[in-house]
Amino acid sequence: MLNEDEMTLHETALRAVHERDGATVVPFAGWAMPVRYASDLAEHRAVRTAAGLFDLSHMAQLEVSGPDAGAALGHALVGVYEAMAIGKAKYSMITTAAGGIVDDLIVYRIASEEFLVIANASNRERVRDEIAERSAHVSVQVIDHTHSRAMIAIQGPRAAAILSGLTTTPLEAIRYYAITPAQVAGIPSLLARTGYTGEDGFEVIVPAESAVTLWDTLREAGESEGLVPCGLAARDTLRLEAGMPLYGNELSEDVTPYEANLGRVVNLDHAFVGRDALAAATEPRRRLVSLVGEGRRAARAGSVVRAGGVNVGIVTSGVLSPSLGHPIALALVETEHAAEGSILSADVRGTELPMTIVASPFYRRS
After folding, report:
1. Which of 17, 70, 184, 266 can pair with 81 through a Cys bridge, CB separation 3.0 to 4.6 Å?
2. pTM value > 0.90
């Protein structure tokens, strides 16, 4: 069987730009993606203090449209969408009949009969096909725009100031988790105030052929403000500090929304695939917790979590926090040991290191 390095990888419209600018490009979820440009730490800090630019064009872009689009999504996903206002967004999930998470995603309402679903790259085909199959009985169509569009994120405290010079759309009118049609650098775009870093910022969706122009224009406009291009490594440490789960780490078909502390996105008052299983699983046997440690040694994904010498969980993501200066981790832990303030231990390369359960997120912007 071929490994990912040997497979033919998808390329975003910005592949040549990443190489031009010195990025290290690696296989990720079937795509050739920049993992870093110069320094993971410098890119992380730029987003926290100024702004960072991310290529998110590998993310699935699925248009769900038609007279029954809202009802179709309501049957396919865990939320209710028929009453969503145009221009709004919802974080949501698609689950198996057994209640496991197939993917987490964002649903935007673009028009009365049009929604945009952004799913993880690794789950694009699965999510696309599941939505189509689950809505086959109603009047709806599912179109995959992933390869014909690009998505570029600008994130950080200077993001709005940089972007404001490139659009006539008043950015202060775009609330968090909202989307609007706009002209950005003269390019017809969908402009959303969403992100995966814990900072204020925007995600801009444009035709793939306009991606290079938009990227270079944003870089030039942000140069004096401290904006830098950022790779997947910085995106991962940023989202972990913000307590945001990652599919394949915190989320999987073996994890329910309630175990992931995401029961708030599940609406049990409507029929959807997985509803009955989730209705019986609202008191899970394990929960996702946030852990902080001391010193400089970080527990990594796969590290065993113990209480009194007994295995009670496993770390799903962990890092030495660039912003906070101490180890942080997310872990799935047996519910009886998941109370905030509990002191557990993580096996870090054979050494038991104490870690304390704290409230999420680890980092919150001022």
Report:
1. 70
2. yes
